[in-house]
Amino acid sequence: MLLSQLVGKTLIMEKTPRGVCRGVSISQKNKTLKYLLCSSEKDAFNHTNFVLPIDALASFSESALFLSKLRPVLPKSSIQISTGMPIYNASGDFLGTLKDVEFQNQTAIRLITDSDISHPFTEVGALSDAIILRKAQPYPLGQIIPHKNVLITRKILRGAVEKQSLIKLTLSLPPFSMR
To answer: Cα dihedral sign for 62, 66, 72, 78?
Structure first.
């Protein structure tokens, strides 16, 4: 799922338009989708006047988001993210604006800039009015294990160290893997 599949779409509840999705909010802890940031005004671009939990989203199409419930909530422990945010590296160099965010199993895994350059979400050092990327981590946290289609987490790394299979895990990842 991509952020662009949610942002700017009309919210529909029981065949009635209820507003527009302006952005999303992700969990501070595990970077999963948590809330939809919505506006009842169709033309107010960055104005949010109600927030819905992500489980209110039943399905989506190219033009609309279909809701299973319409019960606004107060967002807790989350970070707002929307398209158009400026992206900088740790040195302060401008890298572009946020065009899209790629989600896998509702977890943010990749940022895509307006120049179609992508950055792993694990490089995000700060996220507020702008996104600041830190230097890449020495080990690929957040990278996908190709043959298992699983994200590498700290728990997976600890398990590989305990089983003494860290080298085997590393060799199964790009650029070492031949798959």
So the answer is: negative
Closest CA to 83 of 65, 96, 67: 96
Q: Round to whole Å and give the CA distance between 32 and 171.
A: 28
- Spatial distance between the Cα atoms of 140 and 138, rounded to a whole number of angstroms: 7
pLDDT at 51: 92
Q: Tell me the C-alpha distance between 93 and 88, whole Å.
A: 5
Residue 75, phi-psi category: left (phi > 0), alpha (psi -120 to 50), beta (remainder): beta
The torsion of the CA quartet 75, 106, 13, 17, rounded to 10 degrees, works out to: 80
Tokens, residue 107: 């977890």
Two structure tokens written together for 150? 């699983």
Question: For the chain, what is the mean pLDDT?
Answer: 86
Rg over alpha carbons for the chain, rounded to the nearest Å, is 18
User: Is it the case that residue 86 has pLDDT exceeding 70?
Assistant: yes
Mean pLDDT across 157-173? 83
Q: What is the pTM of this model?
A: 0.70
Q: Are 18 and 12 in contact (CB under 8 A)?
A: yes
For 90-94, 129-133, 170-174, which range has the lowest pLDDT when averaged over its residues?
170-174
Residue from 27, 95, 161, 48 nearest 7 by CA: 48
